[in-house]
Amino acid sequence: MARFILSLLELGVSATVHLLFGLYVFSTAVAADISQAAAASGCLLLRRPAAPGLVNVAAAGEEEERRGAAPVVLDGSPPPIVLVHGIFGFGKGRLGGLSYFAGAEKKDDRVLVPDLGSLTSIHDRARELFYYLKGGQVDYGEEHSKVFGHTRFGRTYDTGHYPVWDEQNPVHFVGHSAGVQVVRVLHQMLADKAFPGHDTSEDWVLSLTSLSGALNGTTRTYYDGMLAEDGRSMKSICLLQLCRIGVIVYDWLDIPWLKNYYNFGFDHFEMSWRKVGLSGLIDLLLGHTGPFASGDWILPDLTIQGSLKLNSTLRTFPNTFYFSYATKRTRKLFGITVPSSVLGIHPMLFLRVLQMCMWRHPQNAPLPYKGYRDEDWEDNDGALNTISMTHPRIPTEHPNRLVVDDSDCHPLQPGIWYYKIIEADHILFIVNRERAGVQFDLLYDGIFQRCRKHAFRRSPPTVPNESSQSQ
């Protein structure tokens, strides 16, 4: 009984902290829009009378995106740098003028920041990312759509943001958190020629930089509510259940101005009251239909088991450059792993840093992979385990090299995961630039400089069949 009460207390604290942070981000975006609109026109221009406080800066940007009239359509070279957000993230056109990457995109004039589903599965986001760049109507795949119960086609990009994308005009990807796995799945789809009407190959990707990347899953998913026994089911009472209910109600209400401002990305599941009515809402809440019933959402992909399943199909390609920044906010104290500081960890993450230090896989559950040890997964950044962020390592370890000094990896060799471990929590380098201070500029300047000066092909791409060896 005492344990149950303690669990409810922890759930209440976690839910409150996450809700407050979400409201903070949302209100910051609204305040910034109001300020920009006031400065530009001297008055507030409301999109609709029914939505007081929200100006049409965000709505106009979103309408441009929906029409395919993207603010930036790149052509030719140098290769663009594409910043891919993580879970609960957003791209250009969402949350008004707020930047997920805290303005890092302004460091180069050929940077794209796509807006993908914030809670949709890795597969669905990878498909969206392809059409965002190349153009056309998002095709989630006939078989996948049937299996998971959603419409096959999504939004249409009349003009892609980089329509010339091919082997001769490749791109650099920089992914944060789950965004890295999105890029890796897309990369494999390119190699497998999985997009009808497009002759793709793995050489469409010049480099991939992982920033706190979810390469091998995270034990945090189990604290949030995923069952460690299978990595796909949810506990009946947990933070993710509250999230599930909130998302379902949000999408069912389908308030246009609100979804223009922020969208979880489940439009292809058609959960709006206009489509399913009240009975449909009941089915969704009871878990009979929708993405949470079918498992086609991002959390199952972020468990260790889900990541192992993804990784078993993903390769490291010999013509692509890889670099990874693994973050940690823990240290050893008398042989015990503990949070490295109090003030240096975001309030939303401190409890999870502490919990993840103490994670022990249930004794009655099968180990997620051969050779698993709890102690390997203790170091973390509040969202991901440090061991998960260095390079793909389960079910097989990909070629990798630890970097202590950047000069150690020059010249860069393709096909190797260079990785560096840095002191930071999971959100130090996104949303709020001031938190990271000078570290922010050092990190992103290093990433952009590597893309521009050190990651390039000295010879023509090799034949795809010869270059796509399994690692």
From TrEMBL:
It comes from the Eukaryota. It is found in: Secreted. One of its GO terms (cellular component) is extracellular region. One of its GO terms (molecular function) is hydrolase activity. SUPFAM superfamilies: alpha/beta-Hydrolases. One of its GO terms (biological process) is lipid metabolic process. Residues 80-191 form the Lipase-like C-terminal domain. Keywords: Hydrolase, Lipid metabolism, Secreted, Signal. InterPro entries: AB_hydrolase_fold (IPR029058), Lip-like_C (IPR056304). It holds the Pfam family Lip_C. This is Lipase-like C-terminal domain-containing protein.
